[in-house]
Amino acid sequence: xxxxxxxxxxxxxxxxxxxxxxxxxxxxxxxxxxxxxxxxxxxxxxxxxxxxxxxxxxxxxxxxxxxxxxxxxxxxxxxxxxxxxxxxxxxxxxxxxxxxxxxxxxxxxxxxxxxxxxxxxxxxxxxxxxxxxxxxxxxxxxxxxxxxxxxxxxxxxxxxxxxxxxxxxxxxxxxxx
Length: 177
Fold this sequence. Notes:
By secondary structure, this protein is mainly α.
């Protein structure tokens, strides 16, 4: 029996984790719409290129600019729903407490890495903003700092999801099932 598409019945309930994960779900669903925009943009660019022999640089750059929020926000959504990479052939054979211990350790390490990348990327975004970085290509997109801003945002969301998971796995291991 499932609570939603990816939550087993034995999942530890935590109001804090539930709230944090609702933020991840909301941003993930919003990001899914960016995928639709990207598909339409690619189709439009193909039509322009082959039917009219036009290839606006700004529209071509926009394609890869849209990949940034899809990947950076999508990673926290994938982690939330268990769609991340794991060696399940071994993991599934472990006892539930060992699985929870591994997931707790992974969540803590992920949160630490997310915090480090978040902090390091703020300077990167600020530098792009302060110099008014834009595309080096004529006709390209300005305001590259907006694209770069998805790095700290994506890793902040990844950190939020990792904390939510650490809470759940910790509660399971330390008695509140």
